[in-house]
Amino acid sequence: MRIHRAHIRDSALALYRRLFPERQIFFRSEGEVHFRRLSPQMQVTAAAIGLVALMWILAVSIYYLTGDARLAAKEQELQYVSGELDALLGELGRLQKDALTRTERVEQRQRILDSLLGDVPAGGAGKAATAGDAAAAEDGTPASGEAIQDQAMGSAGSGGSTVVAALIGVSGARAGAPARGPQYDVYRETGILLRRLDAIAARQEEQAAALARREQRRLAEARHLVARLGVEFEDLLASDVGPAVGTGGPLVAISGDQSSPAFRNLLDLAGMRRQFDAAVFSIPSRIPADNYYVSSRFGQRRDPFRKTWAMHSGVDLAGWPGEPIHAAGEGLVIKAGRAPAYGLMVEIDHGNGFHTRYGHMRKLKVKAGERVDRGTVIGEMGTSGRSTSTHLHWEVWFQGKLVDPIRFMEASKDVYALQTRVRSDG
Q1: Which residues contact 51 (CB under 8 A, 6 or more apart)?
Q2: What is the separation, in whole angstroms, between the first and last Cα of the chain?
Q3: Domain ranges, ordered by start, for the chain
Q4: Angle formed by the axes of helices 412-425 and 183-228, to 10°?
Q5: What is 293-425's CATH number?
Q6: Percent of the chain having pLDDT more than 90?
Q7: Does residue 70 surpass a pLDDT of 70?
Q8: Is pLDDT at 319 greater than 60 in this prediction?
């Protein structure tokens, strides 16, 4: 082994002496000859410097030749990242637009619920739990009433400026804090909003179903009461509301493509109930006399003069001469004076197809064109016209047809109680 290593050393030394022998460079200047001695060490140094320079030139050339490919790869990568960013921003914009649409829908539905909840007397349904609303909102459970708007909608209803802060109504501190930067946070916050809106929408569906059941109960009561009067409920709603009835209130509309079946059902029922509430004030709800007895009912009877069967168009309330006669409901006096068979007579238009007539009075207290309230004294009981003794002949008309006044007398307290409730709720 030692011999082999010595051989290698000797061979390398021989190669070194052959490649880098001592050299002399001669040059002539101004007639004189000079020379410079180049030692092997100097030659090795020069060769090393030359080799390094050659390698540097080669590396620069390779880098230059491959630079276009690298730039193309970088540009392709940049385009890919830019495309991903555009897709991300587009998806984020879609989510935010969806969130804004849902927020507007939630606000619109809440206005409907609030308007209907406003019809509920204090302590009634709709004033649901409020103590747990804030905690419920934190875990995605919807609150009720105004808490829904405060916790879930934030300021989105004002137009949706500052997309994240306006749409994400998690809390005032978080919405007002500076953005943390990563797109994931925006997605997460938007996702929280969408889940919260879904939860609130589900709660609103439950409220709409509960309110629909309440409207159905109220309409069932109204139908039963109207049936007692001998009037068709649909005919009452279809009648034109006359001048004696005032209606109004804010318009809360919802487009069909945005409303759910539960809300459409609620709106239909609430519209029907409010239509009835407007019409109920036209129903005569007061017995015209305080001191009386029924001397002749509505329908067929023997005529007191001819003693033959005839149709009695009203009810006769007998009493003392001068007994005050009261308007059965608010309305407009359209006739006041003497009429064939009726004697001194007053006719009142209560609106919505209802008219009442009061005949055989001895004295009138109103004139045609006057507006009267329920209970207003319009005359005194007498025996004018085709009459045998002192009494009031009272007729009730609906849509041009006679109706049995006894039905209205029997239901007068219930009708007036309903009118009072509707007036107080309105």
Answers
A1: none
A2: 118
A3: 293-425
A4: 160
A5: 2.70.70.10
A6: 33
A7: yes
A8: yes
